[in-house]
């Protein structure tokens, strides 16, 4: 039996942060942020809190069986809480449903990989909740609505509407680092690890390996204040802020879509190829053109396009997979990227959970072939990736799915903050340039956080 969703239109706010200020202290508060108005390009923002149930992600080091069971559990979890919900409209991407994050380390389990540097530090920063209501802001139509599942009481809807109608200046809470960021690679260590990857590539063992370094520090204060500062720098269309324990949060400023599913239509948009932005317009245009013309970056991108065509082929109708756009230049606040788009049609005997399982983690942040690249990442990176390169995602009650690749992502937990950055290494890569690229991607984040509180 189908059940209707209830919509209450509310006052639209150009900046969804102003609305999230009202919700962010509620348990399980989450904000999927297209970064409008800073980016000028995002359409929908999703805000929610008070999940009615939670589904934990597998712990670091979980077995392949446990990780595969997680995706079975995810499908059952969604069905248990949201079976029979009617689609609302094309203008409501999420009408309540499952929302949260899955860590990269879950992908290790799926592919039978265990991280050599697992130091017993769980700090997962991941998990999913079942949300019976949400706020959706549509920046194209300049409309906003409280969207509630049939089981949400009229009294709770009235409370939420009153809360969301408040007009109050944002309280910028204190946030500061206790020390500068430190990396888990020195330049010399990075160069030595790069040389080992090059030796594997020269031996024909793999074609591309994504190598990341982790930056960490300790902090005090409210991570939401850090997010608001970083958001003004990054303006990324797949950003997210997911509150966890008091004072803890997962922060993602990702520009990259992992997988979307709308009806039976599947889409993935890998990023490969990066150049830093420049304040000088002439230098900036030259950097963008150099990226467009770079044979190495185009080859690197094409390797991942082929990998993702194969990943989607496990779940999609044979013959339905197409490369819609190849090597498109996308310019963000801090970097230029090359982005490709691959699409397909989900098989009738497949599901959103099987699609995720067959594609996780995203190939753009592993390398090729995927399993071998992941083995080398686990062997060579000093620490597990945790949330980094996993995915922040939603599965709406009506089955619509969207997800990011959790790059440009920070984990704030128990007074420690971690941030990662990586890049794909291929046969003609140079270690100095790859090392610098990691700073090009997150250096402005690190500098901004180090400046807070001073």
Architecture overview:
The chain has 454 residues and is of the alpha+beta class. It has helices at 17-23, 64-82, 104-110, 154-164, 187-202, 223-234, 281-293, 295-313, 352-359, 370-380, 431-451; strands at residues 6-10, 30-33, 44-48, 53-55, 97-102, 127-131, 133-138, 143-148, 175-177, 182-183, 208-221, 238-243, 249-254, 257-262, 265-268, 271-276, 322-331, 335-345, 367-368, 391-396, 401-404, 409-413, 416-425. The relative contact order is 0.18. It has one domain: Anthranilate synthase (4-Layer Sandwich). The protein is globular and about 65 Å long. Strand 17 (322-331) and strand 18 form a beta hairpin. The strands form two sheets. Strands 1, 2, 3, 7, 8, 9, 10, 11, 12, 13, 19, 22 and 23 form a 13-stranded antiparallel beta sheet that branches. Strands 4, 5, 6, 14, 15, 16, 17, 18, 20 and 21 form a ten-stranded antiparallel beta sheet that branches. It is 32% helix and 30% strand. The termini are far apart. The mean pLDDT is 92. Helix 6 packs across helix 11 (431-451).
What is the element layout, followed by pairings?
Elements: E1 6-10, H1 17-23, E2 30-33, E3 44-48, E4 53-55, H2 64-82, E5 97-102, H3 104-110, E6 127-131, E7 133-138, E8 143-148, H4 154-164, E9 175-177, E10 182-183, H5 187-202, E11 208-221, H6 223-234, E12 238-243, E13 249-254, E14 257-262, E15 265-268, E16 271-276, H7 281-293, H8 295-313, E17 322-331, E18 335-345, H9 352-359, E19 367-368, H10 370-380, E20 391-396, E21 401-404, E22 409-413, E23 416-425, H11 431-451
Antiparallel strand pairs: 1-8, 2-3, 2-12, 3-7, 4-6, 5-6, 5-20, 7-8, 9-11, 10-11, 11-19, 11-23, 12-13, 13-22, 14-15, 14-21, 15-18, 16-18, 17-18, 20-21, 22-23
């Amino acid at each position: 039996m189908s059940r209707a969703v209830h919509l209450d239109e509310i006052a639209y706010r150009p900046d969804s942060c102003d609305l999230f200020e009202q919700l962010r202290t509620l348990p399980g508060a989450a904000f999927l942020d297209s970064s409008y108005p800073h980016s000028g390009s995002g359409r929908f923002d999703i805000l929610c809190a008070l999940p009615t149930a939670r589904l934990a992600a597998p712990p670091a080091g979980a077995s392949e069986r446990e990780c595969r069971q997680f995706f079975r559990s995810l499908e059952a979890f969604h069905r248990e809480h949201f079976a029979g919900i009617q689609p609302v409209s094309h203008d409501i991407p999420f009408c309540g449903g499952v929302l949260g994050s899955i860590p990269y380390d879950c992908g290790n389990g799926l592919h039978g990989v265990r991280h050599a540097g697992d130091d017993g530090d769980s700090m997962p920063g991941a998990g999913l909740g079942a949300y019976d209501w949400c706020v959706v802001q549509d920046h194209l139509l300049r409309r906003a609505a409280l969207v509630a599942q049939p089981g949400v009481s009229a009294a709770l809807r009235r409370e939420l509407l009153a809360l969301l109608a408040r007009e109050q200046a944002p309280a910028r809470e204190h946030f500061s680092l206790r020390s500068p960021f430190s990396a888990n690679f020195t330049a010399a260590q990075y160069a030595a690890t790069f040389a080992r990857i090059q030796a594997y590539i020269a031996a024909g063992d793999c074609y591309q390996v994504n190598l990341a370094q982790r930056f960490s520090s300790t902090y005090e204060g409210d991570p939401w204040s850090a997010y608001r500062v970083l958001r003004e720098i990054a303006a990324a269309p797949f950003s997210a802020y997911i509150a966890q324990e008091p004072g803890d949060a997962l922060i993602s400023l990702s520009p990259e879509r992992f997988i979307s599913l709308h009806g039976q239509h599947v889409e993935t948009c890998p990023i490969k190829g990066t150049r830093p932005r420049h304040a000088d317009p002439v230098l900036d245009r030259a950097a963008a053109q150099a990226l467009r013309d770079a044979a190495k970056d185009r080859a690197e991108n094409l390797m991942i396009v082929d990998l993702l065509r194969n990943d989607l082929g496990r779940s999609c109708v044979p013959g339905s997979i197409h490369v819609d756009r190849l090597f498109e230049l996308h310019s963000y606040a801090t970097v230029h990227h090359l982005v490709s788009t691959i699409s397909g049609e989900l098989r009738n005997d497949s599901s959103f959970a099987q699609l995720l399982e067959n594609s996780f983690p995203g190939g753009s942040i592993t390398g090729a072939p995927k399993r071998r690249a992941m083995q080398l990442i686990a062997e060579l990176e000093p620490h597990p990736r945790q949330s980094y390169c996993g995915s922040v995602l939603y599965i709406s009650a009506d089955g619509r799915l969207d997800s990011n690749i959790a790059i440009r992502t920070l984990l704030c937990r128990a007074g420690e903050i971690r941030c990662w950055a990586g890049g794909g290494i291929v046969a003609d890569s140079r270690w100095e340039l790859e090392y610098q690229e990691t700073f090009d991607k997150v250096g402005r984040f690190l500098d901004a956080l180090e400046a807070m509180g001073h």
